[in-house]
Amino acid sequence: MKKARRIFMTAFASAVFATMMAGTAIAAPLQPVQHADWMAQKSIISAGQNGDLALQRNITLAEASVVFARLKQAKLEAAPQGAHWSVPYLNWAKAQGAVSDAETANPSKFVSSNELIAFAGKLGYDLKLDEKAQVTRGEFFQALGDAITTQITIAHTNDVHGHILEDAGQKEFGYAKIATLLKEWRAENENFLLLDAGDTFQGTIYVNQFKGESIVPILNRLDYDAMAAGNHEFDFGHEQLLKLRDSLHHPVISANVFKADGTELLLPVYKAQIGGKSFAIVGFVAEDTPVLTHPDNVKGLSFKNPVEVAKTVVPALKKEADHVIVVSHVGIDVDRKIAESVDGIDLIVGGHSHTPLQSPEVVNGTYIVQDWEYGKSLGRADLYYLGDELVAFSGGLKEYEETVQADPEIAQMVQEIVKNIDSVMNVVIAKTEVPLDGDRNLIRKQETNVGNLIADIMRERTQSIPGYEADVALANGGGIRTQLPAGDITKKDLYTLLPFENNTLAIVEVTGAELKAALENGVSQVENGAGRFPQISGMSFTYNPSKPAGERVIEVKVGDAPLDPQKTYKLATIDFLAAGGDGYEMLKKPFFNTGLSMYSVVEAALLERGVVNPKVEGRIVEVK
What we know:
By secondary structure, this protein is of the alpha/beta class.
């Protein structure tokens, strides 16, 4: 296992001095940090009676002396009666050898950048300022804040789901462009960590067809420090997860997954020394992973509540390390619960809920960040420590920019995977006894046999997800993209049929009225061949295309029973539609995203069936 790049420090008597010496490189965070804010809170600097810090006014020698004395925690008496208020501070600075008798004679003098740098240097601070005859208070405070704090930069990813290629249309970086950003950020700050919050090895054909093994060399070259196991890391069985773990140069961590003998399946905590500080990085995965993956994949394992585990683990880690960071694949809501319930966590790097946190949340003093999904952005967090205290934080997302140059080495590694996929994709997975009618002139205008097959598979897959067993299913015809002849079905055929790798199986609760509205939307543009035309399972309906849009659906049945407008039904659909896509605004409400790609769901069902012979059954009937 890799030894992380670290800077080791000897403890100094002064926490401020230790922080100052630990790292002086100034890296540019995504969101600017104003050191004056926390310095004022800690009474290192003071505002006037009106609360104004007067940041635009030039700094005087007297004012600089006060700030330095407070930083050194000097205990000074008040100025003698009739003397200038700054006399005790100037005398202190003179005693430190930082200023001369001649300089103290003019306490109200505006000081130059070179004078401030020399003043600070004699006190042990490495101040960085552009050469100027006079320096504003704001410029001085910012430079001093940079000098006295240790900046730790953490880049983070989550829920990449095998999106290894750049996709300008979907605004996804791909690993080659992510590599370029990481090189730039590492060059800015030697106190650097790269973390991943899970769901890395599953999602597209480029990883699924190799059970995640294809991207191990890329992840090793990107030089991650640690990653949390996501629920989809178990989709190929936990034995395969352990195989992947052993191939990586960084640990896969989780503190809430246990084997039958009570021991952890994975390393629970990763410890590192960065910038003279010790960090304990603890991982968590979703407690409902056994529901989200096939039970055989996690046989013999138990997944404990991450909040309860954190209550035990974090206090113990606080005794062993200076700082605790959580890398979690539990979703933003559970991240908030962890922060609310457990003190002493500096940062939670999250995943699972695919939440694009443009700026961090702060709960109970803990910062929470998350980097969206599919490589659409790269997360960055910058932590500023004064001694052992986290005094400032900057976090956000570097979203996709087409102008970012691809790293040539990683780009070549990605292309090797793409080339290798052809041989894998020519494998036969099933046979169809009839042509599968996915032609756009059919699938977007009427019930078809392949539409029925796919909708049936969607509904059937949910029956093994406790609490989310769907009553009905609906897919949009626009997501089914080709006609397949009778005969063998290869992986490549299926990928051509279902090419949208971002589409995942979702379950949403709808009323009967909302379900009818969804069907109305589905047939609202049938005359134009719109992709919203529904392919369905578990229900049937009749409609009249000659009526106005929104008034075309005549009769709907769920099973053999008439649709009840007031009843709540569970609908299996595609996450794109559950988010309101293709005009399905009536479905836009909180939904359960299985994270399972439509391709993987259908492929698994075809492998199980072996031979298919789907038929049109009168589920959708056009009447005049």
